Automatic annotation (TrEMBL):
Keywords: Membrane, Transmembrane, Transmembrane helix. InterPro entries: BilAc:Na_symport/Acr3 (IPR002657), Bilac:Na_transpt (IPR004710), Na+/solute_symporter_sf (IPR038770). Gene3D superfamilies: 1.20.1530.20. This is Pantothenates transporter PanS. PANTHER family: P3 PROTEIN-RELATED, SODIUM-BILE ACID COTRANSPORTER. The keyword DNA damage does not apply.
Length: 316
């Protein structure tokens, strides 16, 4: 089990590389991941959120109770900066309706589940990071459909109520189940073992979702690759910058500002990919954009975390 735990840590560390590898394999041999669609994809998403829930215990909810102002500022920043920045960039780049849909969907999703690790690498406030991820995930079933309806509901046919119910089932319910299990069973040795390997399971699940999209829609990537990557990069980097200065404007210390930058900038693009496939199956561009964002956010967030750590060493 110690070996599996060590493997899990390494897989979490190299999440971006694993996702890129899965994408390449899907391009070369689509049948490898073509099974990740429909109900199977829903189950895979649920497993990812269950793994997140299993990391949440009493102490994490105590953080929410003890630091309401920090969490409130973080939630406001998360659910205003990224959705509005997404639609602004889509208009500035004159993106197609499909790419606009994908970028806005990424922007309206909660913070990424790997952001806690990135905050740790950045010497940020990890407790704050966990609190923000928790709150943004709990709010997602309401905020994501609302923002999607407001920002793109006029141009794209969508079922906001259906998305709300789906996200309750696939995001909130698994998180609640995982968290309750952690609170009740955290002292059990077998549960500790299961919890220790769940990060690796989540990484594999993310890779499967991205691989599934690449297998089905990968041939469309070349059609708009450059503008797609530029828009995703601008959205992500803009989130880092605006998140950091949101912390500065509200008087946060350096660790909190770094955490806010990462929490705002890194989105749960894996969830966005699943939502795109579920609710916009005829819009291939949106799914490809969300899948590319999943890879980009994983890579850039890790790089940013390491840059913050490098800066500290340089200052010392």
């Amino acid at each position: 089990m110690n070996f599996l735990t060590a493997v899990s840590r390494q897989m979490t560390r190299f999440t971006a590389l694993i996702i890129i590898l899965a994408s390449i394999i899907a391009f070369i041999e689509p049948a490898t991941f073509s099974w990740v669609k429909g109900d199977t994809q829903v189950v895979v998403l649920g497993i990812i959120m269950l793994g997140m829930g299993m990391t949440l215990g009493k102490e994490d909810y105590q953080i929410l109770a003890q630091r309401p102002l920090d969490i409130f500022i973080g939630a406001i920043a998360q659910y205003t900066i990224m959705p509005l920045l997404a639609i602004g960039i889509a208009k500035a780049f004159n993106l197609s309706p499909g790419l606009t849909l994908g970028l806005v969907l990424v922007g309206t999703c909660p913070g990424g589940v790997s952001s806690n690790i990135m905050s740790f690498l950045a010497k940020g406030d990890v407790a704050f990071s966990v609190g923000m991820t928790t709150v943004s995930t709990v709010l997602a079933p309401v905020m994501t459909p609302l923002w999607m309806t407001y920002l793109v509901g006029q141009t794209v046919e969508m079922d906001g109520w259906g998305m709300f119910k789906f996200m309750l089932l696939v995001t909130l319910l698994p998180v609640v189940i995982g968290s309750v299990a952690n609170i009740l069973l955290h002292k059990k040795h077998w549960f500790e073992d299961v919890r220790a390997i769940m990060p690796a399971v989540a990484v594999v699940a993310f890779a499967c979702i991205v691989g599934g999209v690449a297998a089905v829609h990968g041939h469309r990537f070349a059609e708009s690759a450059l503008v797609m990557i530029l828009a995703i990069a601008a959205h992500n980097i803009g989130g880092y910058i605006l998140g950091y200065y949101s912390g500065a404007l509200t008087g946060m210390n350096t660790a909190k500002k770094r955490t806010l930058a990462i929490e705002v900038g890194v989105q749960n693009a894996g969830l966005a990919t699943g939502l795109s496939a579920k609710f916009f199956p005829g819009n291939a561009e949106s799914a490809v954009a969300a899948a590319v964002a999943c890879v980009w956010h994983s890579v850039s967030g890790t790089i940013l975390g390491n840059l913050f750590a490098w800066w500290d060493k340089r200052q010392q």
